[in-house]
């Protein structure tokens, strides 16, 4: 089965093609036979597409005003030139899309219909930087591949079984009945990581209390018991919870009322400030990239140091919330860009939990391999670094869905 995966971000479009043979999914994620990425922010004048297949890597400049045509151009590299891996686009059996927000309508991967597209569109106000790009990808596939099966894999699905005490906000209940509730995000990553954690440790997933730390430009934690997410830090939108690269995370809501009343800020300006000008970038005044922050800290930049200190403080506080929800912790998992690569973030995060018997091995932490236990032998809590494989997780959902059809 040939499975094309489209993973649209706020300013990017990643894609890959998997070929799965045999009657079972492989134990470990295989390498895609073709990979592509479009970065719409690569340059002020153009987007940049990078293609990798057959040992060949190519870069192509794109017109940012013609995004749909650019996705079609990306797909053409599957069957033409040095990156050709299929004879015709109709060889693709199914296309899987990561969709950030599925609301309360979808709790599992779903074949895309007009109704599903309408739901994704209706939820744009809750995921304004992502859901439009998902629709863009779906539309591009319809135009290029015709009636090929398309499946939406929702980031919110993994958190859909959260108990009401975690999902309902303490505001008038009628708003919950109208869909204002905590949904949670990064579900595809959290789900993959807990399943991988159980395999690494050789234990049943149902026996483990796991806290997963998905730390990238966007960041969230999940408390997982019996393989089910029972609490998470993101909520109604991906803005709630931890301090992030450019997002504020949770703040006193009265701040927004004050800014509107006393400084005349409108909703669009507040949305821009909270989503694009806050977090690490807002405090440092320069960058939302953790690599920049840690380098600037070493050079004595006080604002960068403050940004880092707030980031770690919030991690400690939010891990504490997840810990209380679980009633204990067997495994702490770090994943995504910062979680997998930042030695100092992992070290400083773990320091405050030594009272639980959680002990990080500082030597293992310096350069951990992929999917590695970095705790000491006598640590009562295992600490893992897991390489998240969202694209493969989406492909697996598609494979299972197609085999059930």
Automatic annotation (TrEMBL):
Residues binding substrate, per UniProt: 98
One example GO MF annotation: acetate kinase activity
Active site: 155 (proton donor/acceptor)
EC identifiers of the protein: 2.7.2.1
Enzyme class, broadest EC rank: transferase
GO biological process: acetate metabolic process; acetyl-CoA biosynthetic process
CDD domains from the UniProt entry: ASKHA_NBD_AcK_PK (cd24010)
Pathway: Metabolic intermediate biosynthesis; acetyl-CoA biosynthesis; acetyl-CoA from acetate: step 1/2
Catalyzed reactions per annotation: acetate + ATP = acetyl phosphate + ADP
Major localization listed first in the record, in broad terms: cytoplasm
CC cofactor: Mg(2+); Mn(2+)
Binding site for Mg(2+): 7, 390
Keywords of this entry: ATP-binding, Cytoplasm, Kinase, Magnesium, Metal-binding, Nucleotide-binding, Transferase
Subcellular location: Cytoplasm
Cofactor note: Mg(2+). Can also accept Mn(2+).
Gene Ontology CC annotations of this record: cytoplasm
Function: Catalyzes the formation of acetyl phosphate from acetate and ATP. Can also catalyze the reverse reaction.
Family: Belongs to the acetokinase family.
Subunit description: Homodimer.
Stated name of the protein: Acetate kinase
């Amino acid at each position: 089965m040939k499975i094309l995966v489209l993973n649209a971000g706020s300013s990017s479009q990643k894609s890959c093609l998997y070929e799965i043979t045999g009657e079972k999914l492989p134990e470990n994620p295989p390498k895609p036979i073709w990979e592509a990425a479009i970065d719409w922010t690569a340059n002020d004048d153009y987007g940049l597409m990078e293609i990798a297949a057959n040992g060949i890597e190519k870069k192509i400049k794109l017109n940012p005003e013609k995004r749909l045509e650019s996705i079609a151009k990306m797909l053409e590299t599957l069957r033409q030139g040095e990156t050709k891996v299929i004879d015709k686009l109709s060889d693709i059996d199914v296309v899987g899309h990561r969709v950030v927000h599925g609301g309360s309508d979808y709790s599992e991967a779903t074949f895309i219909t007009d109704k599903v597209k309408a739901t994704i569109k209706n939820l744009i106000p809750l995921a304004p930087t992502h859901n439009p790009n998902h629709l863009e990808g779906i539309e591009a596939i319809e135009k290029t591949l015709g009636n090929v099966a398309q499946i939406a894999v929702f980031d919110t699905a993994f958190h859909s079984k959260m108990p009401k005490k975690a999902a309902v906000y303490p505001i008038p209940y009628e708003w919950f009945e109208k869909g204002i509730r905590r949904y949670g995000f990064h579900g595809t990553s959290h789900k993959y990581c807990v399943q991988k954690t159980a395999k690494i440790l050789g234990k049943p997933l149902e026996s483990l209390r796991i806290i997963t730390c998905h730390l990238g430009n966007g960041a969230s934690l999940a408390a997982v018991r019996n393989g089910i997410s029972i609490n998470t830090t993101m909520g109604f939108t991906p803005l709630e919870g931890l301090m992030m690269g450019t997002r504020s995370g949770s703040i006193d809501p009265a701040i927004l009322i004050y800014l509107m009343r006393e400084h005349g800020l409108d909703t669009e300006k507040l949305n821009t400030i909270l989503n694009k000008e806050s977090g690490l970038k807002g405090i440092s005044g320069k960058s939302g990239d953790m690599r920049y922050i840690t380098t600037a800290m070493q050079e004595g930049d006080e604002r960068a140091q403050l940004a880092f200190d707030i980031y770690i403080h919030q991690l400690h506080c939010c891990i504490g919330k997840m810990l209380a929800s679980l009633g204990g912790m067997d495994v702490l998992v770090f994943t995504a860009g910062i979680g997998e690569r930042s030695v100092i973030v992992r070290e400083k995060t773990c320091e405050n939990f030594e009272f639980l018997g959680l002990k990080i091995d500082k030597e293992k932490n310096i350069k951990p391999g992929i999917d590695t236990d970095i705790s000491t032998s006598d640590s009562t809590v295992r600490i893992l670094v897991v390489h998240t494989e969202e694209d493969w997780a989406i492909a697996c959902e598609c494979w299972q869905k197609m085999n059930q059809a």
